[in-house]
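Notebook entry, structure prediction.
Reason for the run: the old model in the group folder had no record of what sequence produced it. Starting over properly, with the input documented here first.
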Amino acid sequence: LPIELGGGIRDMKAIAAWLEAGITRVILGTVALTNPTLVKGAARAFPGKIVVGADAKGGKIATQGWAETSEVTPVELGKRFEDAGVAAVLFTDVDRDGLLKGVNVSATAVLARALTIPVIASGGVGSIQDVEDLLAANEPNIEGVVIGRALYDGRIDPAAALNLVNTVRAKQS
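New structure, fully documented this time:
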């Protein structure tokens, strides 16, 4: 089972250790803003294994576990890594995360259109309708969506969500 892991990873030793332990991809958030050289070096050292975490609060990148907010937008952050070899940008709308009130489709689509790096949506998914809304955006650069609390609460059946995605993607092809 592919697993992505993020949170508090701030040096090459930790990145290597997690990947050696079997993690599929490592998500780097705060260091993407504070130490982009580390992220670029990790992307070169571990091709296809590094994801940039773009956690946004009020449309600006939040760092340090969402305790601080920068003046950088998700698009600006993503563009800094377009030629670095990162596997994807994980976009989390912090203002919606955990609330089950819907993923920010418009902001995710704007980011996906602005970047060549695949984008993964996150934050606020509460029902299968959110997956449908992301698919309806018809942005080929949206690679996936993180579904957390809605899975734990039983609001989304994972098999139904996968079936929906596979059906829609087959029609789009």
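Summary: The two ends are 26 Å apart (CA to CA).
The old model has been moved to the deprecated folder.
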